[in-house]
Write a structure and sequence with these properties.
The protein is α/β, with parallel strands linked by helices. It is built from six helices and 14 strands. It has a six-stranded mixed β-sheet, covered by helices on one side. The chain has a six-stranded mixed β-sheet with strand order 7-8-9-10-13-14.
Amino acid sequence: MLKIKKFVVNPFGMNCYIVYDPVSKEAVVVDPGMSSVPEANLFDDFVEHEGLKIKQIVNTHLHLDHCFGNNYVRSKYGVKIAAHPADALLGKRIDAQARQFGIRMSDDSSVEIDVPLAEGDTIEIGSDALMVLHVPGHSPGSIALYSPADKFVIVGDVLFRGSIGRTDLAGGDHSTLITSIQNKLLTLPDDTQVLPGHEAPTTIGREKMSNPFIR
């Protein structure tokens, strides 16, 4: 059974997840958004305490708040960055994204995709695996990471408790987002735990019954 550690990081209150196998100690980092030394230290301390072997970074999408810490983790742990190639341009324009929010980034802020992901790919973690679902709309390359065995799905900013992702940023499209949610997420079992990129978790069943944006 996979375990999940959540860190709430950066001024946007973004959820960074470490998904790991407690037996093999293999782990992937989902959306490393750490933006300060204390946040990076907390992340590193957990990895060291648990004796984890970071295999890969996986980005649900490449909006800046989800990848502030990408290059830090990539350099420190010697791992590659996996994301959907439809978000490659967003990764190259992290500095331009930051300026929209009045944030100044360093010259090395751009994010390069080392491992392109597509619908149906799997990310192996020990004896378990996460399935890649392409769920565009919030961004062109948004993905969700689904574990049928452990009944959870990490959805980035596609779906929230009682809400959905914004579509007013570059590459966003409302109708595409709704189609992605209906066809890729709401078809999962009702007891699937939804782990979003911000705020609290929910379940597929709860959102099917009460989310006003998708009813």
